[in-house]
Amino acid sequence: MTALPPKNHTPLSHLDALEAEAIHIMREVAGQCANPALLFSGGKDSICMLRIAEKAFRPGRFPFPLLHIDTGHNYREVTDFRDSYAKELGERLIVRSLEDSMQRGSVVLKHAGESRNKHQSVTLLEAIEEFGFDCCIGGARRDEEKARAKERIMSFRDEFGQWDPKNQRPELWDLYNARVHKGENIRAFPISNWTELDVWQYIERENLALPSIYFAHTRPVVRRQGALVPVTELTPARPDETIEPIRVRFRTVGDITCTAPVESDADTVHKILAETAATTITERGATRLDDQTSEASMEQRKKEGYF
User: Fold this and answer.
1) Is residue 293 pLDDT above 60, yes or no?
2) How much is the pTM?
3) Beta bridge partners of 84
4) What is the reported pLDDT for 305?
5) HEC assignment per residue over the chain
6) What is the per-residue pLDDT for 302?
7) How far apart are CA 181 and CA 172, in angstroms?
8) Domains of the chain, with CATH numbers?
């Protein structure tokens, strides 16, 4: 006989169900892994991850440090927020820079203007070896990009940090296997089943603070290959380009050389929610310039150890 729910049973809302799943996954990581780390860049997805961690483990400290792989070319608004938020939470933040990998010779750029974004996997693998992390918890979502849609919740990486999309562990009935041998690694993705709209709805519900560049502001940009490219020291205007002051916001943030904003007047979370609900273009498809070349394809980078 099927058990009936209690008379006062109230079904979980959509966000409550996603949050409960994410809390469960984080606790599974804490229970199964000896030395995990939570990847925290200061971006909107990782900010949601910190709130999930608070709900999973407070009033105690997080059972893992925060880890950021910094290209050295990140937006200052985001890295400043990263530092202040980690300090506000009272949690340990580890930052490892791609520039250190360049000095060691483990990362060699083809030319000075090459995007550093795809080289973060080297610095991440070096940090994993340095601290002996057996799991890195990330804020990737399946709706972001085709390669990320192939990921399991607990994504296995071999002793070389590599991912094989054709050789993944089954996750039937929400049973997660984070067991690894020494040198191997798990990437855990608690918000895999969230969408960009879910993230913004959660930000609104939880009243989460964000870096200012997520909201509409006026910024000098040039139009290049269908994208708005911010004019900075790292991304100067070309001689044949016209600089325009345009009101924009960032849907996703990353290395300055490969992250473009979108034209927008949405300067509140409520307005961003309306824009997000109406858009038909994924956030990475609209704003990540490095995802648009086969050489820097997400799947290839993930096979090499990327997030």
Assistant:
1) no
2) 0.89
3) none
4) 58
5) CCCCCCCCCCCCCHHHHHHHHHHHHHHHHHHHCCCEEEECCCCHHHHHHHHHHHHHHCCCCCCCCEEEEECCCECHHHHHHHHHHHHHHCCCEEEEEHHHHHHHCCCCCCCCCCCCHHHHHHHHHHHHHHHCCCEEECCCCCCCCCCHHHCCCEEEECCCCCCCCCCCCCCHHHCCCCCCCCCCEEEECCCCCCCHHHHHHHHHHHCCCCCHHHCCEEEEEEEECCEEEECCCCCCCCCCCCCEEEEEECCCCCEHHHECCEECCCCCHHHHHHHHHHCCCCHHHHHEHHHHCHHHCHHHHHHCCCC
6) 59
7) 22
8) 14-198+296-303 (3.40.50.620), 208-292 (no CATH)
| pLDDT tens digits, one per residue of 273-288 | 999 999 878 776 656 6
List the one residue out of 196, 159, 154 whose CA is nearest residue 179: 154
| Matching residue, tokens 């290839």 | 300
- pLDDT at position 290, please? 58
Question: CA nearest 75: which of 235, 206, 224, 193?
Answer: 235
| CA 87 to centroid of chain Cα atoms | 20
Residue with tokens 């990581």: 29
The residue that leads in pLDDT, 78 or 164, is 78
Residue type, 193: N
| Per-residue pLDDT tens digits for 61-105 | 999 999 999 999 999 999 999 999 999 999 999 999 999 999 998
Q: What percent of the chain shows pLDDT beyond 70?
A: 89
Length of the chain: 307
